[in-house]
Fold this sequence. Notes:
Elements: H1 3-39, H2 43-53, H3 57-60, H4 62-74, H5 76-85, H6 87-106, H7 113-143, E1 147-149, E2 155-157, H8 167-191, H9 194-224, E3 226-232, E4 246-251, H10 256-260, H11 266-283, H12 287-309, E5 312-314, E6 324-325, H13 333-360, H14 367-371
Amino acid sequence: MELYLALKLLWWLLLGVLLMGLAIMVGMDMGVGTLLRFVGRSDLERRVCLNAIGPHWDGNQVWFILGGGAIFAAFPLIYATAFSGLYIVMLVLLWTMIVRPLGFEYRSKIASPAWRGVWDWALLVSGAVPMIVYGAGIGNMLLGVPFHFAWDLRSYYTGSFLGLLHPFAVLCGLLSLALSVHMGASMLMGRAGGAVAERARKAGTGALLLALALFSIGGVWVASMHGYVLEHGPAAAAAQTPLQQTVSLRAGAWLDNYRAHAALWCVPGLGYLGMLLALLALRRARPTLAWWSGALAWIGVIGTAGVALFPFMMPSSSDPSQSLTLWNAVSSRTTLLWMTGFAAVFVPLIIWYTSWAFWVMRGVVDAQELEHDEHAY
């Protein structure tokens, strides 16, 4: 295999790993925010929830940075096309991500029920909206995004914000939110204890049942959806642009990779396995197993979309033949080599540091200590 082709495939896999890490780690924090007003019936219980993820939520944001940086450097055409065309979506995501840390830092500064209530709602919205946007974004990749290129590769977005709210994209957004709620519920079961843990267990169970239903409905929907087929283009290892290929649409084409390689059905199988194991773990009140099973579910769900799309990364509904694929949207060979070197150092370091932080700060949050700790959230 040529080195450039191997690097392209490696960075497709690494981007998938980063998206999975983002969904698992950031999704857990967002899930706690979404659940805050439902599992915390008093101010003290809500403070317990916030302090359960207090040592980790800001560190987990590194997955956002890694994901954005990887797209910027490894897939610059996707970065430029998506961040300019989907500008309103990016602003909504940015505003919620700005409000969220303010909620953590300012909520407990004033002992006023009204003040804290406003920030509780802010944390709920800033937890739910990004996960809905995340899932809807993946759903829109399967639907196709309305953009095209000029002769000089300037991209033009021809859609609208409301056009992105296709029912299938909304379904994907709700699936993302459901899995996020489960991850947050599993975290609270292990870190909050008492009545909060029991409410979190019930919320996580409901979220998983919803996720199972949405994942199944989405699979049936994708099977009948018009997918993209790369009919002709330069060799995969060649440097190329989106103006050098021919792409067609065909009903059911998103399942072609699964039909060609039966072993790939194991990927959606991982999604179902993770959800079912998580349900069993929640029933038996085993939060650690529930959390890891939820992570497995996320890997299966995101992997299912990635396998279906391959080699497409951002299909164009305006001009299918100008769709962005792994072969034409990637950076140069030299850039990918440098990035591989940096990733080999920093990704294991981040995983090690995150694991260390969770191990050191393990255990149940003591509600009584929070009342006398001026540094707690």
